[in-house]
Amino acid sequence: MPAMDLATRILIVDDDPGIRNLMSSFLDKHGYHTDTACDPIEMRELLAEHRFDLIVLDVMMPREDGLTALRELQREGAPPVIMLSAVGSDVDRIVGLEMGADDYLAKPCNPRELLARIRTVLRRRGGKVAGADGAEQPSSDERRFAGWRMHMGVRTLHDPDGAHVPLSDSEFRLLRAFVEHPRRVLTRDQLLDYSGGADSEVYDRAIDVQVSRLRRKLGVGGGQDLIRTVRNEGYMFFPVVE
């Protein structure tokens, strides 16, 4: 098998060819295999042909903006996404997180900072950090709660009727944090730590937004009451986990 097939594959989507080439060249030197797209249309063409471990997605593009593309990616169960934007306010970051982004960087960004964020996001998802580093093999454990089945290794969730419930990477990590700490009150800081790692950027609304998104997904399968709010303290995952 060619060496590049063993490397973590990253898709860079940006309308600026200079930025695309700079990021691609830098990441290639650090053991990743990169592909580039000039807009979300070309991105979707590449996603139809290849499996990617992570997408770096620019927000401001002429034919279709990155947030619109992100919304569509989340509906389809996308790989983790790091957003890049020339507008770096807290409001814009929160909007990006609310829509399912795993991280958000203001442009221009240092390629080394992007590399660090990529490594962090990939570690969170339990996947490969880079082909040269050796892949971490995820567990294939299955957890069951209230009729639901969650496969930790293949990262899937099925409701009590057996229907697959697609989750974004951030939603899966958050649910995993709940499942691994059931029937305990978890503060927002604990959830940020369990689901994102100690080096995650902290926003006041980040966990509340992610819990709200996860509740909506669970609610489709009748799991509205699985996550309960504990006033002034945090959240509790109520069912018994097997």
Looking at the structure, what is the overall shape? globular
Overall structural class, as computed from helix and strand content, comes to alpha/beta
Can you count the helices? 9
Multimeric organization? single chain
Percentage beta strand: 15-25%
Strand order within the widest sheet?
Answer: 2-1-3-4-5
The CATH superfamily of the largest domain turns out to be: Response regulator
CATH C-level class of the largest domain is: Alpha Beta
Find the CATH topology of the largest domain: Rossmann fold
Query: Architecture of the largest domain, according to CATH?
Result: 3-Layer(aba) Sandwich
Main pleated-sheet profile: 5 strands, parallel
Count of individual beta strands: 11
**Ends distance:** 39 Å
Which runs of at least 5 residues are low in confidence (pLDDT < 50)? 1-6, 131-140, 197-202
Helix content: 25-40%
Gyration radius from CA atoms, angstroms: 18 Å
Number of domain units: 2
**Kindly state the mean pLDDT as a whole number?**
78
Description:
The protein has 242 residues and is α/β, with parallel strands linked by helices. The chain folds into two domains: 3-133, Response regulator (Rossmann fold, 3-Layer(aba) Sandwich); 142-237, Winged helix-like DNA-binding domain superfamily/Winged helix DNA-binding domain (Arc Repressor Mutant, subunit A). Helices cover 40% and strands 19% of the residues. Helix 5 (90-98) links the parallel strand 4 and strand 5. Helix 7 (169-180) packs across helix 8.
